[in-house]
Amino acid sequence: MPRERPSPPPFEPESLERSLDRYLVAGLVFMALLIAGFVTYKVREPTLRSDAAAEQQTTYRDIGSQLFETNCSSCHGKGAVGGSAPVLDAKEFLKATSDGQIQNIVSGGVSGSDMSAWSLAYGGTLTDEQVRQLATYLRSLEPDAPSVPAWRQGKR
User: Fold this and answer.
1) 58-74 CB burial, b ≥16 within 10 A, e <16
2) String of b and e for 130-143 (b: at least 16 CB within 10 Å)?
3) Fold annotation for 15-153
4) What torsion, rounded to 10 degrees, do the Cα atoms 9, 10, 16, 19 define?
5) Residue 135 has what pLDDT?
6) What is the rounded (10 degree) CA torsion for 77, 71, 117, 99?
7) Is the pTM of this model over 0.85?
8) φ and ψ at 126, to 5 degrees?
9) Domain regions of the chain by residue span
10) Is the pLDDT of residue 132 over 90?
11) Which among 152, 135, 142 is positioned nearest to 99, based on CA atoms?
12) Using 50, 70 and 90 to split pLDDT, how confident is the model at 1?
């Protein structure tokens, strides 16, 4: 009959193994919490972004309105209804121009007219952010803009 061989002593003491098991369980719980957090973030993120974008639009519109009254209303009239310069609160103007075009017109001006450049990059007094705010304000006029076929002539 073969003789039983003695088994070697355990490589790690039992207390160390219990300690490692606790760390393993803690790591798994932490990982589960992280996964739950990522899922919650992914579910909430679209509404957070749309809320932030809407709030930014509102803020830009309000600041743009103030900038317009300060810098533009002397030529374009209060509320952009025209003056010695074109009517900007006109359905024809707002439908025909994109936000980028409005920003370019405000930034660089219109050569051959009284519309000077307003962007700092072209020697004006407004930052690029302020130009975007002005464009946002003008775009906000579009839903209620009246039809003014002769918008280029300004208010007569």
Assistant:
1) eebbebbbebbeebbbe
2) bbbbbbbbbbbbee
3) Cytochrome Bc1 Complex; Chain D, domain 2 (1.10.760)
4) -150
5) 96
6) -70
7) no
8) -105, 145
9) 15-153
10) yes
11) 135
12) low
